[in-house]
Specification:
3-stranded antiparallel beta sheet, single chain, alpha/beta, about 280 residues, Glycerol-3-phosphate (1)-acyltransferase
Length: about 280
């Protein structure tokens, strides 16, 4: 966790400012995204009528496909071709990504922010929407046997944030993206033991996961290495908004209520994903 002083020492494109988002850069990326969308992943999508016309929302997604996370840029392409680049949407990116990468300039220009509550709150205050992937690294590298499971690793901060900021949650699910690599197993606990015995983490950053996976370009990859996704068809779906009975700071501080809301989102997204899988297969 960064200290307040560290957060106040800004560098260009460090994810601590909403103003680094650049619609012109996004426009320049659209032809590339379109090629992958139409010819490489052959994306099929539905449910976009569930996105409110002019209301800020929290888009909650299931993280798939390793570090490439191919359904994320495909979702962004769909957003921009429907709503244009001027309708602001930001994505919260895991802190480890900022620690390891020497430059996240392009991601920031396309709307990436630090995965920190204050950045999401700042976006909502500008009436922008925010994309979150609560499961983080554990979700994006979950075993292939869990490819059709919604997995948030028990993280409930997004629920508290939605309640506090009084924004509806719009689930975003996909099928196929977690087939763009094949995660065989996660050996994080074993690797963590080696770290405790003196083996340093690469880049001195705890990766939180240590998968063994089959995928490009490595063949067999050991550890959370970057991957190039296999050309598997991806199906995405925007689900109906989830609106809770109570909102506000008091609701966000009620642990039992947060648990109820978390279970509601998890179960509803799993139900939607089950239906999507059945419709595809």
């Amino acid at each position: 966790m960064l200290t307040a002083n560290q957060q106040n020492i800004r560098q260009a494109y460090d994810g601590w400012s909403l103003d680094d988002r650049n619609p012109e850069v996004i426009k320049s990326m659209i032809p590339l995204w379109e090629w992958f969308y139409r010819y490489y992943f052959r994306v099929q999508t539905d449910g976009w009528h569930h996105i409110p016309t002019d209301e800020k929302i929290m888009i909650v997604g299931s993280h798939n496909g390793g570090l490439a996370s191919p359904d994320t840029p495909m979702f962004m392409y769909d957003w921009f071709r429907r709503f244009g680049t001027e309708r602001s949407v930001y994505g919260l990116m895991h802190q480890n990504a900022w620690s390891v990468s020497s430059s996240n300039k392009l991601a920031v220009q396309c709307g990436a922010l630090r995965a920190h509550p204050k950045m999401a709150i700042a976006a909502f205050q500008r009436n922008a929407s925010v994309v979150v992937y609560p499961g983080g690294a554990q979700d994006v590298f979950r075993p292939h046997s869990m490819r059709d499971k919604i997995y948030f690793a028990g993280r409930k901060g997004f629920i508290k944030l939605a309640l506090r900021e009084e924004v509806p949650i719009v689930p975003m699910i996909s099928h196929g993206a977690h087939d763009t690599l094949i995660v065989l197993a996660d050996f994080y606990e074993q690797t963590k033991q080696l770290n405790e015995w003196g083996m340093p983490w690469l880049f001195d950053v705890d990766p939180e996961v240590f998968p063994i996976y089959i995928g490009l370009p490595w063949g067999l990859a050991i550890g959370p290495l970057p991957n190039f996704p296999l050309p598997v068809q991806i199906h995405t779906r925007v689900c109906p908004p989830i609106v809770f009975e109570r909102y506000g700071r008091e609701a966000a501080s009620d642990r039992d209520y947060v648990d109820v809301c978390y279970d509601l989102v998890l179960n509803q997204m799993q139900k939607e994903l089950d239906q999507l899988v059945l419709s595809v297969e």
